[in-house]
Design goal:
The protein is built from three helices and no strands. It starts with about 25 loop residues before the first helix and ends with a helix. The chain has one domain. The radius of gyration is 23 Å and the shape is rod-shaped. With about 100 residues, the protein is mainly α. Helices cover about 65% and strands about 0% of the residues. The mean pLDDT is about 85.
Amino acid sequence: MTYSAPQPYGNPNAPVGASDRYSVLAIVGFVLAFVFSLAGLIVSIIALTQIKRTGERGRGLALAGVIISALSLIIAIVISIVVFSAAANQVGTTY
């Protein structure tokens, strides 16, 4: 009989250095996307670069954080432009 060494836990096909734990920055970036969009965007982008380097899980969360943050920032900018242009139009009118 031949002896084979025990296999390590986890996915044997995972890239070297891959981790089974989620990136904390990806989770924080996703949560911040709903609370403070600019911070969520920045943290999610940092998380994406860290995930690429370390092989941690959470790429989907980081991508969702980037997308949600970017969309909410775009919506906020459009709403601000509409509100300020409407306010500027009301300044010169008298009733």
